[in-house]
Amino acid sequence: MMQSTFPLLSLAIWCPVAFGILVLAVGRDDNPTLVRWLSLLGAAVSFAVTLPLVSQFDNGLHGMQFVEKAAWIDRFNINYFLGIDGISLWFIPLTAFITVMVVISAWQVIEKKVAQYMGAFLILSGLMIGVFCALDGMLFYVFFEATLIPMFIIVGVWGGANRVYAAIKFFLYTLMGSLLMLVALLYLYFQSGGSFEILTWQQLPLPMTAQILIFLAFLMAFAVKVPMWPVHTWLPDAHVEAPTGGSVVLAAIMLKLGGYGFLRFSLPITPDASHYLAGFIITLSLIAVIYIGLVAMVQNDMKKLIAYSSIAHMGFVTLGFFIFNDIGLQGGIVQMISHGFVSGAMFLCIGVLYDRMHTREIAEYGGVVNVMPRFAALFVLFSLANSGLPGTSGFVGEFMVILGSVKFNFWIGLLAATALILGAAYSLWLVKRVVFGAVTNSHVKEMLDLNKREFFMLGVLALAVIAMGVYPAPFTDAMQVSVADLLKHVAITKLN
Predict the structure, then answer these.
(1) Which of 9, 21, 128, 263 has the smallest number of Cβ neighbours within 10 A?
(2) pTM of the entire predicted model
(3) What distance lies between CA 398 and its chain's CA centroid?
(4) H-helix or E-strand spanning residue 98
């Protein structure tokens, strides 16, 4: 474990929270320009402070790096304990980067309660980074649950016509799942002699029955968050009603909290149960990949289509985790990072169209390329990345998971590979109906192409998607040692 001399992780967590509180304190509706620039400054600085984590990270080192530890609640031995490894490293700059994009996307769109909107996203950014850094079980739980509050407000205040219904459904689903996780955390606390340290829990010799029950408790929390089939029904409603920024953060980062939970809790703490129930998780993952992919094809609302697409892509992630080989597990993590770029970009593109036409119905569009050529080019690129085109980030993770699946079981690999066909089907079907063909109505004819702000926002994401697709080594190199250590731990514990 590498102790940090400078609190980089605390800076990454609390910098956006501090700026969020500052924006709320100084923001007034009569001066939205100040709020926007202050929010952008906060998001940019928060992103900048995450970059030393990447540049100073030692790929060859085992265990946690940038560790910070201080007593928090002494009576119950709860510590402010932070640290990252190769598994969690890239999610921190990704979260901060997406927050910058969200602030830029809302620049002209959000006109009322601007300070509250921007402040909520900045605070949410810090809380999500906290989830990826926490090494104390109770600290993790506090961050994990606290993320619900800003997102509940974002959907409930700035969402669509059914925003209150969608916000309450999102809140109840995710809260109910997490309550069982709290029971599991308390059980582990008493079993470990009064410690909330996640790394200590990973060494506990738990009996099989206890492992299965703990695994199922964690599964309820993380499966809802991912979300896995059949506890996915809150996601399309939340996406459709959420403002563009809410959809971007929900898809790009919040879903990853569930996937990350499997890697930090389920696999290392309950390794025997993970092996025992792997077939069950693989089955749920394949249903998500195939069935939800088919559901995506019949959607009439663009946001719903991409929401179902997100569920299908996250099915790939959980499949990669439970085939217990390095290429599959790495593929699952790469897929999570890539999905952050691609799904975020897709929702931003839909937001651009919605700002002009105020409808997300696919039937209302057609021939957009004739009036918005720059937008069309970027939208097609992101749609191809969404369908896993080689040379884009979408291909890398999916290919690795399919490769790992074939290594594990040929037929599972074959079923997983159908996702590439289904992904291409619903992504290109969307492009065909929205972008190509003749201009279908007068509203489309009056649409203006991307302005400089929108072009910059989507252009940066396009560069990220292509860069990761062409050269994924920085991502895979960083996680290699941590993934190998995790698999070794799971395999050795199983043998014992």
Answers:
(1) 21
(2) 0.89
(3) 16
(4) helix 91-105
